[in-house]
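Design request, tokens follow.
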């Protein structure tokens, strides 16, 4: 009986030890973010999704228009965002920093000679 117990105990230890101890690699800025942008000419809303591969995809929508631009780019491990504002071609830049659950930065639209700042939070 003791032999069966020790075999069972040894088997249990082997199984438990073979289980992965790796923690999931979670990118702290991964998720949905949203905020507002302003300038002397225009203002509006933006929203993005950051995935675990640090890819950024979202929208940039002026209040005076029903049209939305795309935001496409990447973010570093340190929370530095570099993205383009696009239609069928690149029309501007959207860059900034993401620290904890707060983000802020600058944007430009090349054709309109418009630029300003933006702020946002993690949802």
């Amino acid at each position: 009986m003791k032999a069966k117990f020790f075999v069972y105990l040894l088997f249990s230890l082997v199984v438990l030890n073979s289980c992965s101890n790796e923690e999931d690699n979670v990118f702290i800025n991964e998720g949905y973010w949203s905020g507002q942008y302003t300038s002397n000419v225009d203002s509006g809303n933006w929203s993005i999704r950051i995935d675990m591969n640090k890819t950024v995809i979202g929208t940039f929508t002026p209040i005076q228009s029903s049209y939305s631009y795309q935001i496409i780019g990447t973010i570093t491990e340190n929370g530095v965002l570099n993205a383009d504002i696009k239609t069928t071609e690149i029309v501007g830049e959207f860059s900034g920093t993401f620290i904890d659950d707060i983000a802020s930065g600058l944007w430009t639209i090349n054709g309109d000679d418009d630029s300003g700042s933006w702020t946002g939070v993690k949802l």
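Comment from the thread starter after seeing the answer: thanks! The first strand starts at residue 31 and ends at 39.
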